[in-house]
């Protein structure tokens, strides 16, 4: 057939069932098991085949089945209850008093039926949106709709990864097309070399929060341009810059076309940084100078980095920037060199344009996603603030959290509701309401056994399908049906297969591993994870894992499942007893899977990296190794592997199998209670979103409004001040009288510094004593103005160490304007 188009015929639902359609088009159902059960009952087989997609389920359910259910009193009662719950949720959200926040992300993970995410970044973004809805924030999401999504993974018997891309039809998904006043697809244009690429959008409604997913799959575009938004993370820098132009520039234009004007603009990773250029272009076109426009745009922008290694940050060759952004410097009223300087990064092979550098230049707040990652990020980007100590680089942190209701198993939800105070459901971030001490041992153990049995059934089902597809022998199929023991300690390891995550660390000493596995305590492992399509070392890790399992004869107790997605992730985090995590510290920015496992009563067994470095308290899980640095990766691997074996053999296994008179492992369950209590509230997305609101969204909105008031007089003042300081800072001289090594015995160190800063405003100049103890602790103390000697300003002060020890010290001058976002927004620093 010469296909001219597609026809989608939605069923006409009987009046008592019309609420199903209302619920199906709001992703609220994705974190409400009762709603999911309603759709599953339409056709359980299709529900699984459609990966839990209610819109597709409504499209494909036999009309006779719908008619039958329309007469089923019990089913109708459930429909009425769910629809009432849904409407109550929408109407009862706190009325937002916050400014509108625009949240830009390259990927969003809401549910496995909408595969526009690859892993942690996208699922974190999805949880951010869901928690924003729960808290009634005024927020709008912007992303891309990938009509072939992220790949579905198939594994051969020897572990060879195959990437399969399935066509995603928006009309079969919980999406609605965004239309203009004439009922046609709303579209905006983004200029590419020699052409305009047209962009439309689909709306995903997530509770009370709309998320607009843009697509270039329009007949007005060429076939190549229609493909631009087909797949997430297509290889090649040219495709990447095209997608990021659509996300950043197209995203701003789409919001304008929708009549939306965010006050705060949140870049979830550097992929969205081009948004700042478009916003500056708008202001320059309205008559502002570039410096004023930059200050106005940056004053309301937040950049969140999720990447702990320099190689993970997007950067583009300058010739590619010239090709795609030539002419933009003219639009902004600056030179090409000034434009490139916004993102310039010097690499060993030459200069590149860094999207993270651009994001930092065009924002006045930035954060990492755990405390440790904040430290790593400050060190990684300290070259952008020359003269500052690493601790002073203005990058903070908000530790990631998970959306409780998306990952907590319904059986545990019911148990928690029985024993936690009624207000727990609405204040999940409050530690006082997680009264795990009230959870009875026998109830908790019963549920944990039930969840482990569920996981074993799921593993057997998936493994059987995997082996059937690969055409494996009947004996192998029978083995799959009996895989794993529902009563054995079950360890889960599931994440992206990147080399730094060390999936094969467990096999460092095969003899030691076999001794543990053949010991008196049964233990079994479930592995899952995808490698990026272009990550050949990651793919090799998968094959290596399969080979090691097979060579050691462990296929009965070590299972590798294919196609790790949100559905499989839920089964794993809900069913395992131990969540194993072995990244090479400090390369795990945060991690969230362990939080989900803890929420469901699993215990974490992890390297002290990312979130676990904050969460571990010796009573809620186990650490692998310690926080030290090693001379080589091999040394670290050996030490970590030995720590892993020792803890597993002598602490974890004996504790799990130590049963009391009632047949329950009391010691183990005490740790489970502590894990739930210490992780559940503190690492919830509810806490995370409130941190973003209080630390960043509200302060940014307030400062942005203040700077823009009175026709932007403060913006002009800041821009002029920065220009003046930049022009003349090289003329600044600072020297200190009688400096050098000193011994202080109860007497302070007296300092006198001289600052020559001709023609610079004296009220914005400071001189500081900077002291670092041998332990690493930093102190910064102001020296006080003490008049003038000849052409120099004089500053004096004294310092007496708080405790004995060895210190180094220095004296510096800095320039600080009272309207800056912080004292280190810009690094005008001169050391004596």
Descriptive overview:
The chain is built from 28 helices and 29 strands. Strand 6 and strand 7 (195-206) form a beta hairpin. The strands form 6 sheets. Strands 1, 2, 5, 6, 7, 8, 9, 10, 14 and 15 form a 10-stranded mixed sheet that branches. By secondary structure, the protein is an alpha/beta fold. The longest helix has 44 residues, at 685-728.
Instruction: State the separation between the terminal residues, measured CA to CA.
Output: 79 Å
Reported for the largest beta sheet, the result is: 10 strands, mixed
Q: Please estimate the helix content.
A: 40-55%
Which class of secondary structure composition applies to the elements?
alpha/beta
Note the overall shape.
Answer: globular
Beta-strand residue fraction: 15-25%
Whole-angstrom Rg:
29 Å
Tally of separate helices: 28
In round numbers, the mean pLDDT is 95
What's this model, at a glance?
By secondary structure, the chain is an alpha/beta fold.
Protein topology:
Elements: H1 18-24, H2 33-42, H3 44-49, H4 54-60, H5 63-69, H6 73-92, E1 101-105, H7 120-134, E2 139-144, E3 152-155, E4 161-164, E5 176-177, E6 188-192, E7 195-206, E8 209-215, H8 223-226, H9 237-257, E9 264-268, H10 274-285, H11 290-299, E10 301-304, E11 315-317, H12 318-325, H13 328-332, H14 336-341, E12 344-347, E13 350-354, H15 355-361, E14 365-368, H16 371-380, E15 396-397, H17 404-407, H18 410-419, H19 441-469, H20 474-480, E16 489-494, H21 510-517, E17 523-528, H22 536-551, E18 558-561, H23 566-575, E19 578-581, H24 593-599, E20 603-607, H25 612-615, E21 621-624, H26 633-657, H27 666-679, H28 685-728, E22 733-736, E23 749-756, E24 765-773, E25 778-782, E26 784-789, E27 792-799, E28 807-815, E29 829-831
Parallel strand pairs: 1-2, 1-9, 2-8, 9-10, 10-14, 14-15, 16-17, 16-19, 17-18, 19-20, 20-21
Antiparallel strand pairs: 3-4, 5-7, 6-7, 7-8, 11-13, 12-13, 22-23, 23-27, 24-25, 24-28, 26-27, 28-29
């Amino acid at each position: 057939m010469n296909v001219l188009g597609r026809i989608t015929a939605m069923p006409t639902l009987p009046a008592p069932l019309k609420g199903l359609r209302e619920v199906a088009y709001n992703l609220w159902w994705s974190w409400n098991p009762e709603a999911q059960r309603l759709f599953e009952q339409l056709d359980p087989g299709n529900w699984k085949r459609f990966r839990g997609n209610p819109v597709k389920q409504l499209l494909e359910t036999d009309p006779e089945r719908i008619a039958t259910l329309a007469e089923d009193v019990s089913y109708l009662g459930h429909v009425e209850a769910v629809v009432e719950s849904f409407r109550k949720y929408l109407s009862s959200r706190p009325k937002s008093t916050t400014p509108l926040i625009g949240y830009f992300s390259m990927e969003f993970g809401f549910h496995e039926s909408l595969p526009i995410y690859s892993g942690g970044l996208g699922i974190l973004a999805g949880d951010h949106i869901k928690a924003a809805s729960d808290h009634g924030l005024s927020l709008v999401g912007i992303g891309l709709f990938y009509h072939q999504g992220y790949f579905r993974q198939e594994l051969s018997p020897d572990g060879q990864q195959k990437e399969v891309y399935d066509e995603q039809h928006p009309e079969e998904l919980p999406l609605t097309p965004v239309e203009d006043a004439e009922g046609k697809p709303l579209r905006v244009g983004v200029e590419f070399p020699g052409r305009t690429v047209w962009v439309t959008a689909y709306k995903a409604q997530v509770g009370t929060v709309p998320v607009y997913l843009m697509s270039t799959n329009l007949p007005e575009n060429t076939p190549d341009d229609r493909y631009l938004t087909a797949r997430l993370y297509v290889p090649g820098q040219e495709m990447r810059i095209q997608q990021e132009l659509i996300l950043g520039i197209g995203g701003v234009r789409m919001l304008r076309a929708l009549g939306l004007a965010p006050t705060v603009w949140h870049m979830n990773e550097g992929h969205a940084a081009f948004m700042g250029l478009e916003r500056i272009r708008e202001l320059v076109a309205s008559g502002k100078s570039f410096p004023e426009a930059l200050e106005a745009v940056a004053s309301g922008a937040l950049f969140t980095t999720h990447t702990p290694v320099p190689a993970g940050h997007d950067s583009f060759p300058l010739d590619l920037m010239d090709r795609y952004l030539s002419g933009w410097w003219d639009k902004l009223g600056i030179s090409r060199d000034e434009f490139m300087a916004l993102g310039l990064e010097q690499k060993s092979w030459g200069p590149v344009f860094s999207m993270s550098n651009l994001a930092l230049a065009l924002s006045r707040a930035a954060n990492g996603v755990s405390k440790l990652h904040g430290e790593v990020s400050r060190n990684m980007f300290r070259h952008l603030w020359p003269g500052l100590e690493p601790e002073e680089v203005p990058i903070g942190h908000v530790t990631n959290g998970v959306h409780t209701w998306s990952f907590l198993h319904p059986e545990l939800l019911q148990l928690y509701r029985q024993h936690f105070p009624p207000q727990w459901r609405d204040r999940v971030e409050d530690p006082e309401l997680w009264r795990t001490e009230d959870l009875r041992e026998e109830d908790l153990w019963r549920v944990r056994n039930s969840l482990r049995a569920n996981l074993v059934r799921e593993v057997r089902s998936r493994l059987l399908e995997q082996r059937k597809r690969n055409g494996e022998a009947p004996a192998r199929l029978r083995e799959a049906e009996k895989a794993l023991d529902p009563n054995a300690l079950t360890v889960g390891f599931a994440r992206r297969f990147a080399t730094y995550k060390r999936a094969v660390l467990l096999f460092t000493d095969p003899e030691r591993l076999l001794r543990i596995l053949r010991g008196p305590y049964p233990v079994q492992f479930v592995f899952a994870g995808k490698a990026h399509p272009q990550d050949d070392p990651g793919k090799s890790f998968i094959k290596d894992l399969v080979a090691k399992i097979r060579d050691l004869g462990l296929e009965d107790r070590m299972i590798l499942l294919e196609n790790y997605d949100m559905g499989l992730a839920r089964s794993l985090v809900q069913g395992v007893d131990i969540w194993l995590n072995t990244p090479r510290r400090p390369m795990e920015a945060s991690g969230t899977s362990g939080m989900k496992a803890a929420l469901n009563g699993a215990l974490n067994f992890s390297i002290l990296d990312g979130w676990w470095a904050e969460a571990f308290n010796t009573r809620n899980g186990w650490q692998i190794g310690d926080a030290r640095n090693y001379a080589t990766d091999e040394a670290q691997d050996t030490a970590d592997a030995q720590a892993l074996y020792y803890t597993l053999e002598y602490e974890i296994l004996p504790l799990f199998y130590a049963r009391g008179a009632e047949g329950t492992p009391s010691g183990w369950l005490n740790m489970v209670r502590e894990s739930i209590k210490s992780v559940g509230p503190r690492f919830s997305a509810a806490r995370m979103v409130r941190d973003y609101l209080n630390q960043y969204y509200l302060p940014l909105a307030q400062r942005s409004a203040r700077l823009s008031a009175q026709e932007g007089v403060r913006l002009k003042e800041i821009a002029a001040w920065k220009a003046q300081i930049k022009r003349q800072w090289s003329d600044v001289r600072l020297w200190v009288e009688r400096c050098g090594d000193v011994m202080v015995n109860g007497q302070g160190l007296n300092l006198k510094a001289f600052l020559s800063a001709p023609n610079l405003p004296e009220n914005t100049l400071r001189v500081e004593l900077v002291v670092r103890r041998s332990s690493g602790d930093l102190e910064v103390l102001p020296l006080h103005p003490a008049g003038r000697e000849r052409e120099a300003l004089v500053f004096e002060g004294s310092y007496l160490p708080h405790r004995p020890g060895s210190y180094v010290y220095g004296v510096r001058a800095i320039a600080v304007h009272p309207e800056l976002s912080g004292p280190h927004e810009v690094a005008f620093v001169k050391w004596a």
